[in-house]
Amino acid sequence: MSDTILDDIKTALYRGDRTGVANLTRKALDEGLAIKNILDDGLISGMEAIGVRFKNNEIFIPEVLISAKAMHAGMAILEPHFTASGIKPAGKVAIGTVKGDLHDIGKNIVSMMLKGACFQIEDFGIDVPPQKFVDAVKDANVDIIAMSSLLTTSMSGMRDTIKLLEAAGLREKVKVMVAGPRSPRNSPRP
Ligand code: B12
């Protein structure tokens, strides 16, 4: 039964069916599936399959974008379940996708998980210039900078941010987390 729901989530995601993804995610929660299971084996696994089809030129940007919106609808159902309340924040995190990059699904998942782990989150969204992260350390006393970049062409934004932190004498004040795309589990290894 649970595998059927997860497969249905993947199918609805592929079809870009926002309402379907939201309803099925809710149904999976109601049936007692673990959030991690719904996220990893439903939503993320569905998005990975879309990534493989995109890479193979079987689908194109408009379809991926529609599926991405459906993914957001599913994540919005899960988000409240990640967020613990009434607990002292473990630290303050400034998170964003680096300049030149508009991908935000993975960044949003990380943001959700950190919120669930009691971190206070400043989410700068996408296309974030290095200076904005540096200002967050200077002016808002963030403890961690978390940068996402899925494009080879925008990865240098991470390096530029770290260099700017060093130049401002702030590098020792903050921890930096960086990450890019996962290898799709269902694509052949090189
Ligand atoms: C969805 C998608 C899009 C959507 C984005 C919608 C959105 N709102 O995000 C749209 C259609 C807009 C898009 C556009 C483009 N895309 Co695109 N896209 C994808 C796709 C299919 C899925 C990405 C995704 O969301 N995966 C699901 C999430 C859950 O996984 P994730 O992002 O990896 O995140 C996880 C981890 O990486 C990690 N993580 C991520 N960030 C962070 C940050 C921190 C701090 C930490 C700790 C962890 C962490 O945790 C996450 C949860 O597990 C990938 C293919 C792929 N296999 O990744 C291509 C892909 C990333 N895109 C690609 C390309 C080339 C483009 C375009 C340039 C295409 C074009 N010709 O215009 C444009 C770029 C636009 C821009 N300037 O950004 C390439 C990048 C290749 C490269 N090496 O540079 C990929 C790899 C496809 C490919 N194989 O060619 N894309």
Question: Can you characterise this structure?
Answer:
With 190 residues, the protein is an alpha/beta fold. The chain has 2 domains: 2-82, Methionine synthase domain (Methyltransferase, Methionine Synthase (B12-binding Domains), Chain A, domain 1), CATH 1.10.1240; 91-179, Rossmann fold (3-Layer(aba) Sandwich). Helices cover 55% and strands 12% of the residues. The chain is built from 7 helices and 4 strands; from the N terminus they run ααααβαβαβαβ. Strands 2-1-3-4 form a 4-stranded parallel beta sheet, sandwiched between helices. Helix 5 (105-116) links the parallel strand 1 (91-97) and strand 2. Helix 1 (2-15) packs parallel to helix 3. It is globular, with a radius of gyration of 18 Å. It starts with a helix and ends in an 11-residue tail after the last strand. Residues 185-190 have low confidence and may be disordered. The chain binds cobalamin. The site of cobalamin has 33 residues, from helix 3, helix 4, helix 5, strand 3 and strand 4. Cobalamin binds next to helix 3, helix 4, helix 5, strand 3 and strand 4.
Q: In summary, what is this structure?
A:
With 190 residues, this protein is α/β, with parallel strands linked by helices. Helices cover 55% and strands 12% of the residues. It has 2 domains: 2-82, Orthogonal Bundle (Methyltransferase, Methionine Synthase (B12-binding Domains), Chain A, domain 1); 91-179, 3-Layer(aba) Sandwich (Rossmann fold), CATH 3.40.50.
